[in-house]
Amino acid sequence: MKIGVLGSGQLGQMMCLEAIPLGYDFFCYSPENDSPSAKVGANSTVAPYESISDIKEFLSSTNVLSFEFENIPKSTLEYLQSESKTHLIFPPPESLLIAQDRLLEKNHFRKLGFKTAEFFHLTKDTSKIEISISYPWIIKTLRFGYDGKGQVKVQNADDYRSFLENAFRNGNEEYLIEEVIPFQKEISIILTRFQNGEIVCYGSVENEHKNHILDLSIYPARIPIGLNLDAIEMASKLADSLNYVGTMGVEFFVKDNQLYLNEFAPRPHNTGHYTQDCQSISQFQLHILAITGNLPPTDVRPKPTLMKNILGNDFNESLSIARSLLKDDRYKLHLYGKKEAKIGRKMGHLNFKGTLEEVSPLFHDL
């Protein structure tokens, strides 16, 4: 079977590393030359996401198509949605259309009855309306933002007036204003939904960020068991509502023992990288098994694991620290083979098979 994936970054790389040993041929498509996926054996097509003719040719050369990147042009996703009637495309392109549009995403969550931050759709036409959300706010571009990109914090009315001065230079810009939730923890659920509708879920992982970029994931999350079960139920309900197939990440804020659904990613997720070394099956292998029509495994019980992102900031020093820890076989280093280390760029991650109390202090210096 030939698996095609739109995107060729580190998530595609880790999918490829699971697919090839299972006997599948792996193909990636992106505008990037010498990509992380190509470096581990993926057959690479280099072409723009906007080119329907190239996408059509790529699709015809695969048995099943998936994604490792959701910021694909709307016109391309709509084309793939029409093709999904005759070609296996997982997850459904409609789920990417929802995930990449913050207003569609929030409205979908509310339709399912989930708590979210209060929000307001800001356009040039609505910019004169009085907004009833208490400050502070986060104002986000409606589409194509990640790792804190396309976001600004607004503390008061003066900040908002300053923002509006340059917000509508083209006239058609759209934003989502969200209340800032003073949460105690951020958690996520990594689950995989199979073609028969069965769901495999690891349970909650706790996440800490620096400068809006994931820094540390702690499994299992340090939350009450009832809250963990509620998060699993909500994430599963979301997956069912999308008729989802494959692995997805669902992020929550925890405030006063209540869950606020923040966003979802229609692909394997950075907060699920710990699953590569949790003494169970990884999120990437589950994704491959799901999209290729296999049945879910009967036992997924991870052991406590930590994941630390390695960024391009002081990369050589971080790499030296990570390699020094490898003398302890509880540590496992995963590098993505990216050509250039830049500030804020995810270059790899280090997993630790154990608890926060057992890890070396050097782990936190990465």
Automatic annotation (TrEMBL):
<feature type="binding site">
    <location>
        <begin position="178"/>
        <end position="181"/>
    </location>
    <ligand>
        <name>ATP</name>
    </ligand>
</feature>
<dbReference type="Pfam" id="PF02222">
    <property type="entry name" value="ATP-grasp"/>
</dbReference>
<feature type="domain" description="ATP-grasp">
    <location>
        <begin position="106"/>
        <end position="292"/>
    </location>
</feature>
<feature type="binding site">
    <location>
        <position position="186"/>
    </location>
    <ligand>
        <name>ATP</name>
    </ligand>
</feature>
<dbReference type="InterPro" id="IPR040686">
    <property type="entry name" value="PurK_C"/>
</dbReference>
<feature type="binding site">
    <location>
        <begin position="145"/>
        <end position="151"/>
    </location>
    <ligand>
        <name>ATP</name>
    </ligand>
</feature>
<feature type="binding site">
    <location>
        <position position="140"/>
    </location>
    <ligand>
        <name>ATP</name>
    </ligand>
</feature>
<dbReference type="InterPro" id="IPR011761">
    <property type="entry name" value="ATP-grasp"/>
</dbReference>
<dbReference type="InterPro" id="IPR016185">
    <property type="entry name" value="PreATP-grasp_dom_sf"/>
</dbReference>
<dbReference type="GO" id="GO:0004638">
    <property type="term" value="F:phosphoribosylaminoimidazole carboxylase activity"/>
</dbReference>
<keyword id="KW-0067">ATP-binding</keyword>
<dbReference type="Pfam" id="PF17769">
    <property type="entry name" value="PurK_C"/>
</dbReference>
<keyword id="KW-0547">Nucleotide-binding</keyword>
<feature type="binding site">
    <location>
        <position position="209"/>
    </location>
    <ligand>
        <name>ATP</name>
    </ligand>
</feature>
<dbReference type="InterPro" id="IPR005875">
    <property type="entry name" value="PurK"/>
</dbReference>
<dbReference type="GO" id="GO:0034028">
    <property type="term" value="F:5-(carboxyamino)imidazole ribonucleotide synthase activity"/>
</dbReference>
<dbReference type="InterPro" id="IPR013815">
    <property type="entry name" value="ATP_grasp_subdomain_1"/>
</dbReference>
<dbReference type="GO" id="GO:0046872">
    <property type="term" value="F:metal ion binding"/>
</dbReference>
<dbReference type="GO" id="GO:0005524">
    <property type="term" value="F:ATP binding"/>
</dbReference>
<comment type="function">
    <text>Catalyzes the ATP-dependent conversion of 5-aminoimidazole ribonucleotide (AIR) and HCO(3)(-) to N5-carboxyaminoimidazole ribonucleotide (N5-CAIR).</text>
</comment>
<feature type="binding site">
    <location>
        <position position="102"/>
    </location>
    <ligand>
        <name>ATP</name>
    </ligand>
</feature>
<comment type="pathway">
    <text>Purine metabolism; IMP biosynthesis via de novo pathway; 5-amino-1-(5-phospho-D-ribosyl)imidazole-4-carboxylate from 5-amino-1-(5-phospho-D-ribosyl)imidazole (N5-CAIR route): step 1/2.</text>
</comment>
<dbReference type="GO" id="GO:0005829">
    <property type="term" value="C:cytosol"/>
</dbReference>
<comment type="similarity">
    <text>Belongs to the PurK/PurT family.</text>
</comment>
<protein>
    <recommendedName>
        <fullName>N5-carboxyaminoimidazole ribonucleotide synthase</fullName>
        <ecNumber>6.3.4.18</ecNumber>
    </recommendedName>
</protein>
<keyword id="KW-0436">Ligase</keyword>
<comment type="function">
    <text>Catalyzes the ATP-dependent conversion of 5-aminoimidazole ribonucleotide (AIR) and HCO(3)- to N5-carboxyaminoimidazole ribonucleotide (N5-CAIR).</text>
</comment>
<dbReference type="GO" id="GO:0006189">
    <property type="term" value="P:'de novo' IMP biosynthetic process"/>
</dbReference>
<dbReference type="InterPro" id="IPR011054">
    <property type="entry name" value="Rudment_hybrid_motif"/>
</dbReference>
<keyword id="KW-0658">Purine biosynthesis</keyword>
<feature type="binding site">
    <location>
        <begin position="262"/>
        <end position="263"/>
    </location>
    <ligand>
        <name>ATP</name>
    </ligand>
</feature>
<dbReference type="Pfam" id="PF22660">
    <property type="entry name" value="RS_preATP-grasp-like"/>
</dbReference>
<dbReference type="InterPro" id="IPR003135">
    <property type="entry name" value="ATP-grasp_carboxylate-amine"/>
</dbReference>
<dbReference type="InterPro" id="IPR054350">
    <property type="entry name" value="PurT/PurK_preATP-grasp"/>
</dbReference>
<comment type="subunit">
    <text>Homodimer.</text>
</comment>
